[in-house]
Amino acid sequence: MNKFYITTPIYYVNSYPHLGSAYTTVAADVLARFHRMRGEEVFFLTGTDEHGSKVAEAAAQKKTEPQKLCDQVTAKYEEVWDTLKISYNYFIRTTDSQHAQTVRYFLNSLKEKGLIYKGQYQGLYCLGCERYYTEKELVDGQCPFHKKKPISFSEECYFFKLSAFQEKLLKLIRSQKLIIEPQERRNELLSFLERNQLEDLAVSRANVKWGIPLPWDSQQTAYVWIDALLNYLSGLGWQGDSQKISDFWPPDVQLLGKDILRFHLVIWPALLLALDIPLPRRLYVHGFFTINGQKMGKSLGNALDPEKMAEVFGVDALRWLMLSSFPFGQDGDISQSKFYDQYQAQLANGLGNLFRRVLTLAAKSDQDFTPPQKEEKKIIKILQQTWKIYEKSLDDLKFEAAIESVRKVIAEADRYVDQNKPWELLKKDFSRYQEVIYHLLEILRHLGWLIRPFMPDKSDLIFKGLNLELAEKKKSLIQGKKWGGTIFSPTPLEEILFPRL
Ligand SMILES: [Zn+2]
Questions:
Q1: Which tens digit of pLDDT belongs to each residue from 298-326?
Q2: CA gap 367, 488 in Å, rounded
Q3: 62 CB contacts (<8 Å, ≥6 apart)?
């Protein structure tokens, strides 16, 4: 069976889940569900990043222990992901003892290979990002993401010979052996690596107590970013043997936001190269939701609460709306009123209305609908093309394009109803009425499959209305996307697919 390993970044417990972190996680979930629907064996990993001085400081401010704070925030993440129907296979926490073991194995292996040395670090450090900045990277002397001045910092610590991997990384990216998408991000990274000499990376901290102690020097803890990146290995239970990781390795898709680009596109592959571990197949940098052009985040005070949004729109609709708003690799501005307009147009008046209309029309006769002699070639062709575009789009992480292809089917079905006027056919030409309704029911069945990764419960409801709840779930996707062969005896439902807001 084909295997598919997908990861989100793990989320820092310094903030509660907001619509930005929900965006990444829902996107990963749609891909996970899509690949499961295709019959693949999926491992979907997400989790929380729990170490570092910021967490210790936040805990001290709240007069609690760091671990307690982590437990609280992580519980909230798990709760919100459950609400949003995130079907992860494993939730990794960097305070898990098994994760700490992986980090120790990894750092020890680097040291044994002579890739770690002791040195002195001095630099400008952003507490928000938990990383050092060079003067050049700052905007008006401030961190470009937190709009705050970094602090000046000096300490003794251990370094990883990151600089030794510059040429290797360049070669791999140029030859497409390391795939970074979208193209703009790849080009950006290439020109960065061509123009700048990579500096060695401080991988430990002397004065951060809330972290994983180094295996050879318990006075130092692993730099929180190294700790965090290794979750992708520890989440699969890696125990230090680079020949034996897991059948799921390497990751097929790793999603990340552009604020953590250097860590995932430079440091992460370099760490893997250092231990001869196969690189991820694809690193995908998605865009940000912005509100008035600003990145959303708790520290900026403009975060939208995914649970509240789910109360307004419903969970399934929220998942759809987030991914239909703008292309995944780009930034887009959002607002509740835009979501509202999209909900009305695409879901309440679009799919919801079509579903109710077709079931009502079908209920006007008491008969089953069997495959007709005469098939509408045009409709069959449209569905076949839709499946092609839809699957290609999801393979390319073009969620908005996949959604667009589904919306075209809905529009086509609406047109088909208006042209054929089945309510008139019912009196004039019963066999033609049966033909038309059969085609519409079959379109709905396809729509049930097409929306499934995005809106699993609405998909169930469509199958329920078609009286095919069990039958469709037993099918493989290959069977599901075939035209015809189904005998329909639909049952009008009490529930409304997408209630008006
Ligand atoms: Zn920052």
A1: 555 556 789 999 999 999 999 999 999 88
A2: 9
A3: 69
Tell me which residue of 262, 130, 128 sits closest to 199, measured CA to CA.
Answer: 262
Bridge-based pairing of strands 221-222 and 204-205 is antiparallel
Rounded to the nearest angstrom, the distance between the alpha carbon of 128 and the centre of ligand 1 is 4
DSSP string, 60-88: HHTTS-HHHHHHHHHHHHHHHHHHTT---
Question: Is the link from the previous residue into 250 a cis peptide, with omega within 30 of 0?
Answer: yes
Which residue ranges make up each domain of the chain?
A: 335-480
Instruction: Please report, to the nearest 10 degrees, the dihedral formed by the alpha carbons of residues 338, 339, 342, 343 taken in order.
Output: -150
> How many angstroms does the Cα of residue 445 sit away from the middle of ligand 1?
48
Q: How far is the CA of 392 from the centre of ligand 1 (A)?
A: 36
Q: Separation of 145 CA from ligand 1 center, angstroms?
A: 5
Mean pLDDT along residues 344-352: 97
For the segment 69-87, what is each residue's pLDDT rounded down to a tens digit? 999 999 999 999 999 999 9
- Residue that the structure tokens 């860590």 belong to: 263
How high is the pLDDT of residue 299? Answer: 56
Q: Does residue 192 carry a pLDDT above 80?
A: yes
CA distance 482 to 442: 10
In the reported structure, the alpha carbon of residue 106 is separated from the centroid of ligand 1 by a whole-number distance in angstroms of 27
Q: Which class is domain 335-480?
A: mainly alpha
What is the Å distance from ligand 1's center to 291 Cα? 19
Q: What tokens appear for 258 in the block?
A: 């552009």
pLDDT at residue 183, rounded to an integer: 95
Q: Are 465 and 358 in contact (CB under 8 A)?
A: no
- Cα(481) to centroid(ligand 1), Å: 47
**What is the 478 CA–ligand 1 centroid distance (Å)?**
47
Q: Of the given ranges (92-101, 270-279, 328-337, 410-419), which has the lowest mean pLDDT?
A: 328-337
pTM for this entry: 0.93
Task: Kindly tell me if the per-residue pLDDT of 221 is higher than 90.
Answer: yes
pLDDT, position 454: 98
